[in-house]
């Protein structure tokens, strides 16, 4: 298992996933700043930015990083939609848990370890991204095995 995770293909996949996250984060931050500057309440801007970033990250990971659209060719548009819907539900669940873990990590780094907030924000983000988001995106959200499970509407 460890040897597989260190293979060149897996390393490239990991780097591509981090690029996807970076693109989505830049889009999110840019949209938050733009909408706030245009007069939208900052909380609304933050929600719009988070949704846009999440949709962007999901799409890039599905079609470029993990290429699950090629792993199990859909027999019909309806089954392709069911496959993508299952992935989207799993992605949303992982993202929600990620947000909670990120908040907990920042709290621990700032309040218990007395890190400076900007360092704790980056550190918490990196920890959650490497040890939570990537493994779950790789082996749960966009896994061909999971994609063919009953959760996505397909039987094995």
Percentage of helical residues? over 70%
Oligomeric composition of the shown chains: single chain
Q: Describe the global form.
A: globular
Uncertain segments are 149-156
How confident overall, as mean pLDDT? 87
Span between termini: 23 Å
SSE pattern, N- to C-terminal: HHHHHHH
Helix/strand/pairing class, anyone? mainly alpha
Task: Say how many strands there are.
Answer: 0
Proportion in β-strands: under 5%
What is the radius of gyration?
A: 17 Å
Largest beta-sheet details: none
Number of helical segments with 4 or more residues: 7
Describe it for me?
The chain has 156 residues and is an all-alpha fold. The protein has helices at 2-5, 8-37, 42-65, 68-71, 77-112, 117-141, 144-147. The relative contact order is 0.11.
What is this entry, summarized?
By secondary structure, this protein is an all-alpha fold. The chain has 7 helices and no strands. It is globular, with a radius of gyration of 17 Å.
């Amino acid at each position: 298992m460890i040897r597989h995770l260190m293979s060149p293909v897996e390393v490239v996949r990991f780097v591509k996933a981090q690029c996807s996250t970076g693109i989505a984060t830049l889009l999110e931050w840019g949209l938050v700043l733009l909408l706030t500057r245009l007069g939208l309440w900052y909380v609304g801007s933050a929600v719009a930015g988070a949704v846009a970033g999440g949709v962007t990250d999901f799409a890039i990971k599905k079609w470029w990083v993990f290429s699950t659209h090629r792993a199990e060719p859909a027999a019909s548009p309806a089954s392709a939609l069911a496959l993508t819907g299952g992935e989207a539900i799993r992605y949303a669940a992982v993202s929600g848990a990620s947000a909670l873990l990120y908040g907990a990590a920042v709290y621990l780094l700032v309040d218990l370890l007395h890190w400076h907030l900007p360092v704790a924000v980056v550190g918490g983000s990196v920890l959650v991204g490497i040890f939570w988001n990537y493994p779950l995106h790789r082996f749960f959200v966009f896994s061909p095995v999971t994609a063919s499970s009953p959760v996505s509407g397909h039987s094995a």
